[in-house]
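Hello forum,

I keep getting stuck at the same step: I have a sequence, I want structure tokens, and every attempt I make locally crashes halfway through. Rather than fight my setup again tonight, could one of you with a working pipeline run this one for me? It's a single chain of 457 residues.
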Amino acid sequence: MARLVVANLNEIAVEEGRQRTEFKAGAIEALAESIAKHGLIHAPTVRDNEEGGYFLVSGERRLRAIQMLNEQGRKFKHGITVYENGLLPCLPQGYINELTSKEIELEENVQRVDLSWQEKNQAVADLHALRLIQTDGAQTLQATAAEIFGKPAEDRNLEKEPLRKHERVVDDKIINTSDGNRISKATIIAEYLDDPDVKKARNESDAWRIVLSKLETQVFSGDMLKEEEEEQDNNRVLYVGDMQKILPTIPDASCHLLITDPPYGVGVAKFGDAAKLEHKYEEENFEELHETLLKEAARILTPDCHIYIFCDLDYFHQLRELVAKYGFKPRRVPLIWSKGTAGHLDGGSVLGFRRSYECVLYATRGERPCNRLFTDVFYINTLTETDRFHAAQKPTRLYSEFIRQSALPGETVLDPFAGSGTIFAAAKFENCRAIGIEQNKEMAALVAARREVRTVK
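Reply #2:
Ran it on my machine without issues. Output:
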């Protein structure tokens, strides 16, 4: 264990650039009273400076609280030792590099309750960026979420209290499925914290809406496109616009797999809370839309290929006939995605049966085999509302399972209804290329902001 040093309060300097710039006086007063009553549990961490004093590494709240006690002429304990007259026990770091110092500070600050939302957001984004550097880009959003928000799985008896539908275990910690998106949002907002409009936001939710609006403007004014064309390769490309106009521009036999979630052709009135979905359910253009999709897919896909198309059961047989018309061999019955306990009540009822599954039409062409043996039911929980960027968004894991079954690393997957970009995350995870099309500007801006694609108007 490192030996404590006792420093005078006026010997400790706080460097510029630390995350916390605002402190609530009430919180500092409460901490000072706690230290006076119960003692200082953890000594602040410092490192030597060139002038014979110290730079604070972590523990600024504790430093301020003890400064308050000193101004009041009060004593406090650390262990069995009593401190007064401006003296403070500190844990020396000795010489540490800038990266390690930043890590210690960030680890402390992301857990503090007295940060402004801007400071908290910046600390979260910086910590994720730091972990990406330390892991050579392997750090996931979920891993960062587990570090910040997770609770030790060992503290909970999972046999008696199993994981709920919105929970998962990452790095031996239990997190909510929405926590990964919290990290993703923080990294995007952090790039706009100096924007005057974002500065005026009352909280992260308001800031997120402002940032999305600005992203949309940037993408479609071309400001972001030039930057992305310089930084991104062609592994993941998002075309922004109407798929009926864009599909004909994609070269013949350039893709190996189709995974897509088009409008189902089901009237909104048939379902109660299903109306929250953002798909445009227009029964009259179902056949026209799918005719274009399948006609172009027959040309764009390689001779040996697989396709997965989400569909409503009412339209499965009609869609199966269309698929066969364009030279594909559809499976007689649909694949089933079992979404867990979430689902929509039929007919707007308050009680009754929830639709907790979706159908997927699967078809093949040529002699391409499947890569593995699967059942035809995929038990993967749907995303919670707070975990979705798009109301009809599918889990990345589901798309990943389809890719793993039907494509090889380096091959290209096509999704003409890309939404919030699930296809890009899944393709990246499976080491595949991806081409997506999305006409919703807000969704396209979001995908572009996450730097997962090269965007093309």
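The chain has three domains: 5-98, 99-214, 242-438. If your local run keeps crashing, start a new thread with the error log.
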